[in-house]
Amino acid sequence: MPVGAVVVGANGVVLAREGNRTIELRDPTAHAEILALRSAAALLGSERLIGCDLYVTLEPCVMCAGAISFARIRRLYFGASDPKGGALEHGPRFFGQTTCHHAPEVYGGIGEGAASSLLKRFFAVRR
């Protein structure tokens, strides 16, 4: 699963690892972040992932940013920025809005070159 999301618990253990499955599941909400948050929440038995960190390939969209906020993710790390669909550094800058319930610490551009290359290859196959 080249384009994905990983939730890591406060103890450093990987709780969930998911990839984007919108086409496979015919579900517009099946972004990697959403699926990983769902899996980690089910594993922990809580909708709050307090103390957990999320690592993603691409800057999250507004839907995923909302889910990250509601899950109370501690830190978010992402590789490539997304000028077209991203909601953190681009678009609505979700975590900076007064209506945002919780804003994690955000670290962007982690391995950006590798993440961008990976995404280009991933989407070339899809299109």
Task: Please provide a written account of the structure.
The protein has helices spanning 22-25, 32-44, 62-71, 112-126; strands spanning 4-8, 14-19, 53-58, 75-80, 105-107. With 127 residues, it is of the alpha/beta class. Strands 2-1-3-4-5 form a 5-stranded mixed sheet. It starts with a strand and ends with a helix.
- The total strand number stands at 5
| Uncertain stretches of 5 or more adjacent residues | none
Element-level helix/strand string: EEHHEHEEH
- Derived structural class: alpha/beta
Give structural attributes.
single chain; 127 residues; alpha/beta; five-stranded mixed sheet; 20% strand; globular
List the helices and strands and how they pair.
Elements: E1 4-8, E2 14-19, H1 22-25, H2 32-44, E3 53-58, H3 62-71, E4 75-80, E5 105-107, H4 112-126
Parallel strand pairs: 3-4, 4-5
Antiparallel strand pairs: 1-2, 1-3
Outline:
This protein has 127 residues and is an alpha/beta fold. The protein has helices at 22-25, 32-44, 62-71, 112-126; strands spanning 4-8, 14-19, 53-58, 75-80, 105-107.
